[in-house]
Specification:
Blueprint lengths: L5 E2 L5 E2 L7 E2 L4 E2 L2 H21 L6 H15 L5 E2 L6 H24 L6 H24 L9 E2 L4 H6 L3 H36 L5 E7 L5 E7 L20 H9 L6 H6 L4 E3 L6 H10 L12 E3 L1 H5 L9 H14 L2 H17 L4
Parallel strand pairs: 9-10
Antiparallel strand pairs: 1-2, 3-6, 4-5, 7-8
Length: 355
C-alpha cells in the first residue's frame, strides 16, 4: 500500500518518509567543467603563494599537492554546501586547517625549511583560493535565487548512515577533540564571565535546565545564568525584563552557551546538531509540526545548520521554518559539513553576523 502525503497545520502538503522532497540546490554536485576550473585555479594560486613568499622551486608542487588534496578531501571539487558566496570562505578555511600539520611537517621536517614560512604559505594560499572560489561561485549563480537549503524529512538512507559505527566514531572524535581545545582556549573568558555574573546579581553562576536529547532522552543543559533567579522557564525574547545587564551581553555574544561544552564531553550533546528544546515546547511542537520528532535521531548540538543560516533570535512560531534546516543537516551530515558549520559559527561569533 502506498501512503499519501498529508497536509500539515499550515495547510501545506507534506511528503511521506519515502517521498523525500528537497528544495534548493544544496548539496550540489559540481560539473566536470567547474571541477577543472576550480582545481586549475587553485593550483595556480598555491604555486603563486609558495613562490611569492620565497619557497624553493621543489617545495611549490609539494605544497600544491597537500593544499589541493585537502580541498579534494573536503569535497570542494565535487559537492558544494555554499548557500551564499561568502560560505565558500568557510569551506576553504576547513580545508586549510586540515592541511596545516601535513604542510608544516613536509616543509619543516622533510625539506628543512625553518620558521613560520609553511604557515605563511598556507595563509596566503588560503586567502587567494577563497577569493577565487567566491568569484567562481558568483559566476555560477549570477541569476539564481538564494536556495532554501532545507529538507522536509529524512530519507531511509540517512537513517541507515547515522546508525553505522563509523558515524559515532568520527562524531565522538570531532566533538571531544574540539571541546577540549575550546575549554582550554576559552577558560579565561569563562572565568571572567563567571566573575561578571557574580558581581552583577545575586544567584548561581550556572543555570541548568532539562532539555530533550537524542531518542527523546532528558538531560540537564548547562548555561551561564542570564536571568534573575526564579524567572521560570518560558521562552525568552529580546528586551525581556527578566534578563540581567550582564545577561543581555552574554546572550548577544552567545557567551552564555559556553558551559555546554561540558555537555558535549559528557556525551549528552554534540558540537553540531539540532538545538535541544525545552521539554514542554518539544512536546507541543511534536503534536503540531509534521516530522518534528525526526530531529531527535541524533544528539542535539551546541550549534547547527539552522543557527548559521537563519536569524539569531527565534520564537516558538519560527519552528516550522527551523525544522527543515535541522532535517537537512541530519540528511547530509558529514565531517566536512560539521567543519563548515563550526568555522561559520566562529566567524559569526566574532563578527556578529547571526542577528
Amino acid at each position: 500500500m502506498v501512503s499519501t502525503p498529508q497536509p500539515n497545520f499550515l495547510g501545506e502538503e507534506q511528503p511521506t518518509l519515502y517521498a523525500q522532497r528537497v528544495r534548493g540546490r544544496l548539496p550540489e554536485r559540481l560539473s566536470i567543467v567547474w571541477t577543472i576550473a576550480l582545481l586549475s585555479s587553485d593550483v595556480f594560486a598555491v604555486l603563486a603563494a609558495a613562490y611569492a613568499v620565497g619557497l624553493p622551486a621543489f617545495a611549490g608542487p609539494a605544497a600544491c599537492v597537500i593544499i589541493c588534496g585537502a580541498l579534494a578531501i573536503c569535497g570542494a571539487y565535487q559537492t558544494s554546501y555554499a548557500v551564499r558566496a561568502r560560505d565558500e570562505i568557510y569551506h576553504v578555511a576547513a580545508a586549510c586547517a586540515l592541511a596545516a600539520i601535513p604542510l608544516w611537517a613536509l616543509l619543516h621536517l622533510v625539506t628543512g625549511i625553518q620558521g613560520w614560512l609553511p604557515i605563511i604559505v598556507l595563509v596566503v594560499a588560503g586567502i587567494a583560493i577563497s577569493l577565487i572560489h567566491v568569484v567562481l561561485h558568483c559566476a555560477r549563480y549570477a541569476n539564481s535565487e538564494l536556495p532554501f537549503a532545507g529538507t522536509r524529512c529524512i530519507s531511509p538512507q540517512a537513517h541507515w548512515r547515522i546508525t553505522r559505527p563509523i558515524f559515532f566514531f568520527w562524531k565522538c572524535a570531532f566533538d571531544v577533540s574540539l571541546s577540549v581545545l575550546g575549554l582550554l582556549v576559552l577558560s579565561p573568558v569563562m572565568l571572567a564571565t563567571a566573575a561578571a555574573i557574580a558581581i552583577d546579581s545575586n544567584g548561581p553562576i550556572f543555570f541548568r535546565q532539562e532539555r530533550l536529547g537524542r531518542s527523546g532522552t532528558h538531560f540537564g543543559l548547562f548555561k551561564f545564568r542570564t536571568m534573575r533567579p526564579a524567572s521560570g522557564s518560558t521562552w525568552a525574547s529580546p528586551g525581556d525584563l527578566r534578563i540581567t545587564r550582564v545577561g543581555a551581553f552574554l546572550r548577544r555574544s552567545s557567551l552564555d552557551e559556553l558551559p555546554q561544552l561540558f555537555n558535549v564531553l559528557r556525551g549528552e550533546m554534540s558540537l553540531v546538531g539540532p538545538r535541544p528544546e525545552m521539554i514542554d515546547y518539544a512536546r507541543r511542537f511534536s503534536r503540531t509540526i509534521p516530522h518534528y520528532d525526526e530531529r531527535h535521531v541524533v544528539r542535539p548540538g551546541l550549534t547547527g545548520w539552522a543557527q548559521v543560516q537563519l536569524k539569531r533570535n527565534l520564537r516558538p512560531s519560527d519552528m516550522p521554518d527551523v525544522l527543515p534546516y535541522d532535517l537537512f543537516y541530519i540528511e547530509h551530515v558529514s565531517p566536512l559539513l560539521d567543519a563548515v558549520i563550526v568555522f561559520k559559527t566562529a566567524a559569526e561569533f566574532i563578527f556578529h553576523r547571526a542577528v
